[in-house]
Amino acid sequence: MTKRERETQRDFIDLFYHGTFRDDFLWGVSSSAYQIEGGWDADGKGPSIWDNFTHTPGNNVVNNDNGDIACDSYNKLEEDLNILRALRVKAYRFSLSWSRIFPTGRIDSVNKYGVDYYNRLIDGLVASSIIPMVTLYHWDLPQALQDIGGWDNPSLIELFDSYADFCFRTFGDRVQFWMTFNEPMYEAWLGYGEGVFPPGVKDPGYAPYRIAHTIIKAHARVYHTYDEKYRESQKGVISLSLSTHWMEPKSPNLPGDIEAADRALQFSLGWFAHPIFRNGDYPDAMKWKVGNRSELQNLATSRLPSFTEEEKRYIRNTADVFCLNTYSTKIVKHRTPQLNPPSYENDLERTEEDDNSWPSTAVNRAVPWGMRRVLNWLKEEYGDIPIYVTENGVGLKKSQIEDIDRIFFFKTYINEALKAYNLDGVNLQGYMAWSMMDNFEWLQGYSVKFGLYQVDFNDTNRPRTARTSARYYTEVINNNGIFAHLWRT
Ligand code: FCB
């Protein structure tokens, strides 16, 4: 490609597009329990692995921050509902804290106060005509279940099913949109591979694959429970939220780079999506690479476990809609890494880099056109399934109210989602901005702000203040997309 061609291509992908989404498009915002609730031991709540992790010094959380109080949403339910109503969202995606409901992770420990909190939240949403979208598990495993091995113990499948069953039975008369897991890929890799997330296991070549295997089975199990016991009366949908960056090949004319970019998508999103949305089995690229490298490592079997035929039948088609979390794009190049020690990172046989011309944010580069490409890739890979973007947003270091950068982020990303919907025919049915307000951003603590609303964490009342981007997002919702201002001829 000549320089001029590259420039033309860039101009083209940056073109702005005006239009609207389908009439019933589901506009919302997202959050998660540990990141906002606080009340970490209130009213009988049991500790989760994130409570214990942040309470242990030396775990590399910025400023040693923790979620003990966070946004204090456990005590500020009305304030949260006010934000949601002011934003005029049609849906709110939040997660349930398993150890608030079952302090030990098991049904015999059920905690009435935890159940009450979620009942009040769900009732408040329904009374405000806001659709609750509920994630059952957003990384905060009850510590008592970690003590028996966490997701490395297959008995978690039954325990997760019993918790999910309780939630369907208790909240399902008002909740019709369920997600089992949030981004299990990060939990598997960061929690059990790199070990920088709890439970801090550093076993990069084996544990992530084992954990993912159990999580996929647990997801399928819960899907069948919903299907068999609740779907008929509750009429909801159930899925899980998966995430990936868009992966752009470094040299689009090198087959090795094209394959490496596709492989990177398969190892992140496809790892879970291929079994669940395709055929009950892992992507070929994973079976092939992990299998080959295991053989070269003189191992008797592949480090990637396999499903039996019966398991495959049980796992495939266990999601009604596709829920995607996406934030950024990476440039991918083929690489042949060292063979030992075994590692998921090396199994990918690629390098990932940023393009310096892309605007940086506190966490990722902002690359709006990656949104359109990843949505198109989903359609190609998994067919014409309804898609919801369940997280997309930008983390900034500055806490200012006039957050022009965030407005620019949402405007350009939503614009690319609109192109995917209107120009490319992607079946996009909803979009949830991450996040409704600043919150505990995992290893970054409170140093990174993702909120449409600012939260003052130095004030014990945790006051919330609308940023300029909150007004902008409401305008997008009211217009159901991005209008051409005809008066500006
Ligand atoms: C996602 C997580 C979410 C939030 C955003 C910024 O990976 O699901 O909890 O931290 O990133």
TrEMBL record:
This is beta-glucosidase. One of its GO terms (molecular function) is hydrolase activity, hydrolyzing O-glycosyl compounds. The keyword Glycoprotein applies. The active site is at E391 (nucleophile). Gene3D superfamilies: Glycosidases. InterPro entries: GH, GH_1_N_CS, Glyco_hydro_1, Glyco_hydro_1_AS. Its EC number is 3.2.1.21. It comes from the Eukaryota. Homodimer. Keywords: Glycoprotein, Glycosidase, Hydrolase. It holds the Pfam family Glyco_hydro_1. Belongs to the glycosyl hydrolase 1 family. GO terms for biological process: carbohydrate metabolic process. Residues 338-359 are annotated as: Disordered.
